[in-house]
Amino acid sequence: MSVWVTRSSPDNLRTARELRALGQRPLMVPVLTTTTTYQPPIAVFPDAVVFTSTHAVRHFRRHDRLVAVPVFAASGLVADAASAQGYRTVTSSGGNDRLLLDLMGRVLAPGARVLVLCGEKASPRLQVGLRGRGCVVERQVVYKPVPVQSHSISHVTGALDRVKAIVVHSRGSAERIVPILQKARWRGSLWCISDQAASACENLPGINVHTAMRPSESSLLDMISQLNPAAERRLLKHPSREDTILAALLPGSPSHQNAAGNDNFCDDH
User: Fold this and answer.
1) Whether residue 207 has pLDDT greater than 90
2) pLDDT tens per residue, range 7-16
């Protein structure tokens, strides 16, 4: 029996690799893709940049003047992606959105300008929290999720009897698959990364909905491991820096550090 990974490419590759390490048989069939949106010129350059997802890093048309600006990332994978793009100071907080906000509040001066780069359906919690800490926030949508065509997923939707579980990384993905599952009267388990994703899967008869304790890839995989106790999770050769809580940029810390977490402030496709 297979596990359907609905997450969009290329992030689904890592999820599939981790699932294999848990003894699962991942089937990578994304239900969403992403496309770049119009990005107006930056009139006033910010004091800090926030990337809410790896998609935001990939779709943002980078300005060379921003590579030296402090970057705050909502996930370990996002931090890795930003570093790979040449940003020099990248900080994250182990997937804890409150800790990230507190960290930024301590590091940034009152009135600091923060550019939040995100997807079309990103949660507003980050902007609200930053404004509450005295920051001037500009939110720029740099990509949007787009449902894939039905024919692109027909090979899995037509064989759902061979699927025992589905991994759901966003509310958008959940909303895409729920009508399919209802029509097929599918029975199995949904492994959701967040309450947002799980809430879109309510009242599905015969389906067990499981939600990770924290909206992070690491927490999601820990949950899957606990649901399948016979499988022992093996570390990758190059493990994510998830769950590393960064004290960088606080008084007395080095000026250049990276940490990890997950995309808590927007849906991770």
Assistant:
1) yes
2) 998 889 989 9
Structure tokens at 181: 């599952």
Strands 136-147, 32-36: parallel, antiparallel or unpaired by DSSP? Answer: antiparallel
Using DSSP's 3-state secondary structure scheme, residue 259 falls into coil
CB 216 within 8 A of CB 95: yes
Fold topology of 35-146 = Rossmann fold (3.40.50)
Digit-coded pLDDT (tens) for 103-153: 898 899 989 999 999 999 888 888 999 999 899 999 999 999 999 999 999
pLDDT interval class at 1 (50, 70, 90): confident
SS3 category, 140: strand
Distance CA 27, CA 43 (A): 44
What's the start-to-end Cα distance of the chain, in Å?
A: 24
Asked if residues 23 and 48 have their Cβ atoms less than 8 Å apart, the reply is no
Residue recorded with tokens 């990337």: 51
| Rounded Cα–Cα distance for residues 262 and 258 (Å) | 13
Q: pLDDT band at 237, cuts 50/70/90?
A: very low
Domain boundaries, the chain: 2-33+147-227, 35-146
Give the separation between CA 243 and CA 121, rounded to whole angstroms: 25
Q: CATH number of 2-33+147-227: 1.20.120.350, 3.80.30.20, 3.40.50.10090, 2.20.25.420?
A: 3.40.50.10090
Over residues 22-34, the pLDDT tens digits come to: 999 999 999 999 9
CATH fold match for the domains 2-33+147-227 and 35-146: yes
